[in-house]
Predict the structure.
Amino acid sequence: MDQRLCTRVQLFISGRSLKDLDVWSKSDPICVISMHDNHNPSPIEVGRTEVIQNNLNPNWTTSIPLDYYFEVQQHLNFTVYDYDGRNYETIGTYETTLGYIVGKGTAIEDLHDKRHNDGRSRGKIIIRVEEIKFSRDIIFMQLCAHHVDKMDTFGKSDPFLFIYRIRENGEAIKVWSTEVIKNTLDPMWKPFEIPSEKLCGGNEFVTLRIECWDWDSNSSNDLIGYCSTNLHDLLQPGCQLPIINPDKKNKKKYTNSGVLEVLQCTKRKVYSFIDYLRGGTQFTMMVAIDFTGSNGDYTDRNSLHYLSNNAQNEYERAMWAVGSILDNYDMSKMYPVFGFGGKPDWIGKVDHCFPLNGNPQNPFIFGIPGILQAYHETLPRVHLSGPTLFQHVIRNAMNIAQSTPPGQFYHVLLLMTDGEIHDMDITLSLIVQASQLPLSIIIVGLGNEDFRNMEILDCDTGLLRDREGRQASRDIVQFVPFRKFGGNPYLLAQEVLAEIPKQITDYMQRIGHIPILPEEVPLENIAVSSSSSSFNQTDP
């Protein structure tokens, strides 16, 4: 855990006069940001903007949040690409440090292409930095407009909105853009959500400028007009704002270029993963171990279950790496542990969800070392068999998750397997049902088998659907093949646990659970008993 003090900041990025790499149109720019420092010398991507079509002067709305450490040289690389939907072609890059940008406030720098090394500018990049002032508020908003000016010769208008936050120095930062509504003078845009800290820095009275534009596919977009307001006014019921075109406002009989109406603007609190932990939510981990024959006998050196006094096998490393992290959040340290796909001596037939301790009424084992010990003791007593079925283990996890009070517990099933799943349809259906429960499923693929079906369960392109077309209410599955990390258990744990905080907050928000946060006790009010204190009382 990094104990260095940091400041949370966000970067807003724009481009100007970018080099045009397209023949029949303009470039479609996107900016990708990577970072490295002395602690992490290999650059890693920390964020990317959206793609803006046919624009050499983009104002990207996607902000990039970063932790800024005063004492660390955090090197940043900004690469602007032209993206055609399939390929990225480099327009130019700019390298600097986060400290430089923080010191400047707004950096305006040249982009260059190192491949040509001719020193010529490939356009400008503008990087603005702001400290993130913590706010739990999310703003839900829907806007429409009435009677906007007709801007097209052979049609009406194709209106869309830009929302800007105006800084104290007068700079405008684009924080949102709507979709284009084609051929109408009375557009209604889709509802959207935006964090209060991004919209207005958490200050309801910061000036916002909402611009209404007419989209044009063959030339530059035309300004219909704009209005100035703030979040406090937008939150008032029935808010309507005149859209004023600055080139027309001094003309006789001109009133406005339309009226912007706020159909809905509400503010709601959202809570973080840490908020739920502070509010008393506990993790419980369940473990499921594959005892199918494809693993190989535990006495065979080539087996994934091979037991050695000198080194852990892949199952042991996965259990230790993932379990030792989740163990920090479970006060009881009691974990139900099951095997599947094997024939235990004490049962006498193949079972797809048998307790490792042999006690169906109380399958709980104390601590991660206890799990590893039970695994060692059980292997000689289980005949490896098959097939590989997940349904029984998942049903058992669902029953456990359903038995706990809402909001107090969140369950994580660690399922380790070496082979392809043989009950895919039923498993898909169960996962869709389980998405309603306080449950996440981590699947670790061990060995070198083909895990394509597992990747279907970890549906990163959208929410999972079963064969009947029913859709999961949220993403609860994370699949990772162990070989991806060269057998490094710590990288495995980092990867498989990365999505858990979001899965927890998604569930808690879905059920409307509000954590009861303990009051912060001022430091000066914390008494330290002299009998229990280990520090020298004479120290300053």
Residues 520-524, 526-540 have pLDDT under 50 and may be disordered. The chain is about 20% helix and 30% strand. The longest helix spans residues 314-326.
